[in-house]
Model the fold of this input.
Amino acid sequence: MRVLGIDCGSEITGYGVVEQAPNDSLQFVAAGAIRLSLKEPLPSRLAQVFRQLDSVLQKYAPDTVAIEDVFYAANAKSALKLGHVRGVAMLAAATYNLQVAEYAPLAIKSAVVGYGRAEKSQVQQMVAHLLKMEKPPEPHDVADALAIAICHLHTAATLLRQRAAAH
Done:
């Protein structure tokens, strides 16, 4: 299974593609950051996110997309901007008829680090370890996107095992 994880942000949107091999090992495929200029109007920034995610979806053909669930932002304006970017990410996935899984930040950190309140640096280190990367992915938005993809792969594998055990 190949998963595109997306860490939505109003300044930087990270993405990461991770694949689970038949032997259950995780393999890094690709990752990057979509950097947005706050000088650009919001519709232009959203169009840029869509175009770049569309390109990633075409190039890497994931089986599914995973994003971070809405969390409560410090202010309503930040939450609204984040919601716009999340909507664009979902639209990009829907354009390719892909399912979108959403995970709470605590669930992502728990799945990757084993601790829901892990620091950004801990997530970066663990992502690098799990994907056998020479150094932690930068910026942290990219590490977070890879962590979201890893979380989905772990969750999907667990659900498959539970279904198999039930039969």
About this structure: Residues 2-166 form a domain with the Nucleotidyltransferase; domain 5 fold (CATH 3.30.420.10). Residues 14 and 33 are 4 Å apart (CA to CA). The beta strands are 2-7, 12-20, 26-35, 64-68, 100-103. The chain has one domain: 2-166.
